[in-house]
Structure formats: C-alpha cells, structure tokens
Design brief:
By secondary structure, this protein is α/β, with parallel strands linked by helices. Helix content is 46%, strand content 19%. A hairpin with a 2-residue loop joins β8 and β9. The longest helix has 24 residues. The radius of gyration is 19 Å and the shape is globular. The relative contact order is 0.16.
C-alpha cells in the first residue's frame, strides 16, 4: 500500500517541482483557498494559539495574522517540493546567508549545533551545508511511509547534508567526536515534548510550557559551539538567514541558559512577524500541567 500511494503521488510532486515560480505560487494560492476557506484546516488550533500568544491583540488583528499565516504555510509546504527541481544556484539566490563567515569561523574551532525554530523557511536552510567544509547533518522526524521517507532524505539530503533521526543524533555526535571529525548539526528545537519525559519547563510567549533541552545537554556533553539560525522572509519565495552565536563555551554556561536563550530569540523573532511561525502545532497544549514548585 505504501508503494502504491508513493507511485500515485510522485508524478504530481515532480510536476509541481518543475513549475515556473509564477505558476508555482498560483498553485500555492489555490491550496490556500482550499485549506483556509473550504476545509478550514486546523483553524481552531491556529486561532487558539494566536490568542494565547497575543492576548493584547484584537479579533481583527488575530484574523489578519491567521490569514497571512495560512498563505505562508502553503508556500513553505510547496517550497519543500520545489527543492526537488531547484539547482544550487537557484536556492542560493532565494535563500541568502548574510554572514556565512560566522559559520566558517565557528566550524574551524569545533563542531557546531545550529538551532532554529519552525519559522519563515526551515526547508531551504539545507543550502548552508554547501558553504561549509565540515560534514552537515540535519535532525528530522522519520516518515512512516518508507518510500516518502527515502524521498525526503533525497530532497533534504542535497548539498552535503545527511539526515539523521533524533535517536541517531547522540550516537552520531559521539562517533564523530571520537574520530575527531568536525561536523555541523542542524536541529529544530521548538516542538512540544511529551510531558512524561519533560525535564524543563520555561516561559515561551509568556506561557509556561514543557521544552526540549536535549540540544543543550548534548552541547554540554560534547562541548559543541551553539548558534541560532535567524531566518527572515524578505518577500514571497525569498529569505535571508543569519548565524547568531549563542555560546562557544557550553560547559561553562549556567544550566538551562542555552535552552532559554534559544526560546527568547525565537520569541523575539515571532513577535516581529508572527505570521511566519508554524501555528498549526499544539505548542501550548500542556500549559496547565507544569509541576508545582517545592519551596
């Protein structure tokens, strides 16, 4: 069944990837109409998240952000597919790294952990690895359909990028460090973890939620440089990115400081242009389950 679904879907995905950008974004507009107006995909979740994050905003402002978000979400989804048919030159033209020299400086010192949220464009960030000399890894969520999983690995694995699952990350870093191999690890770190496995609760958009701190634990254990990837949407189909160092001495930083700095940088970016964050995630679903402090 997995193979049949893949064989039916792949020709359509390939066709989309070959569309000229003008037609490509017209298709995105059509999908927006279907998702937002006809189907209403997760509109309640998005509205609830926006109201929680921005209690000071009016109903009209929330609706405006919500509508802009759906337009952007459709663009990002299709842009992942479009990567199949893009050259390195095209991708570098549409996703520009403003200070790649910072990444090059960090990789000369030691391995890098590059953290970023589901903001603006995380799919096209893979082009960063075409600039660096160290091996590039991207941590991803494995897809249940093995054929689509292989396709995602092929799409995201271009230009010196190897995809690894969250379970493979520590093992991969350990092996590289033992063999004295410098590497760069890209990790999206704004998801909501399982409450039963949560080690840290912190404020995000003014709300106390469970947060992943695995990246910080790994950075401390292996003494990795840690940086934040700030991606800005310039206009439709065009982005810029900045590498912003968080710490080059993780073992000397205060405990939880790396994680909280990442959250603060993410929040600041969201407040600038909230429509570019991925609001369909139930990021605040566990906000009432924070353990009480014992004084």
């Amino acid at each position: 069944m997995h193979l049949i679904v893949y064989l039916l879907a792949y020709p359509l995905l390939w066709f989309i990837s070959k569309l000229p950008f003008r037609l490509f974004y017209l298709l995105s507009d059509f999908i927006f109409f279907l998702l937002y107006t006809v189907i209403g995909y997760r509109k309640k979740v998005v509205k609830s998240n926006l109201e929680l994050a921005f209690p000071e905003k009016s109903t009209q402002e929330i609706r405006r952000i919500q509508r802009k978000f759906y337009t952007h979400m459709c663009d990002v989804f299709l842009e992942m597919i479009k990567t199949m048919g893009m050259t390195e030159k095209q991708l570098k033209h549409r996703f520009k790294i403003l200070n790649i020299e910072e990444m090059l400086k960090l990789e000369k010192q030691k391995s890098i952990l590059l953290l970023f949220p589901h903001y603006a464009s995380w799919e096209w960030s893979i082009i960063i690895n075409s600039y660096i000399s160290s091996k590039g890894y991207a941590v991803y969520q494995k897809i249940s359909n093995p054929y689509f999983d292989k396709l995602i690995k092929k799409i995201r694995g271009q230009w010196n990028t190897q995809l690894i699952t969250q379970r493979e990350t520590v093992k991969t870093v350990l092996l590289n460090e033992r063999n004295q191999i410098k590497a760069s690890y890209g990790m999206i770190s704004d998801q909501s973890p399982q409450v039963s496995r949560t080690q840290l609760w912190a404020k995000f958009m003014g709300i106390t939620v469970p947060v992943h701190n695995g990246a910080e634990i790994m950075a401390r254990k292996f003494d990795l440089n840690v940086a934040f990837l700030k991606v800005t949407k310039i206009k439709r189909g065009y982005y810029t990115a900045e590498i912003l160092p968080i710490t080059t001495t993780p073992q000397e930083t205060e405990e939880t400081a790396i994680t909280k700095t990442f959250l603060q940088m993410t929040e600041a970016q969201i407040r600038e242009n909230p429509e570019y964050y991925l609001w369909t995630h139930k990021r605040w679903k566990h906000r009432f389950k924070a353990p009480k402090r014992k004084d």
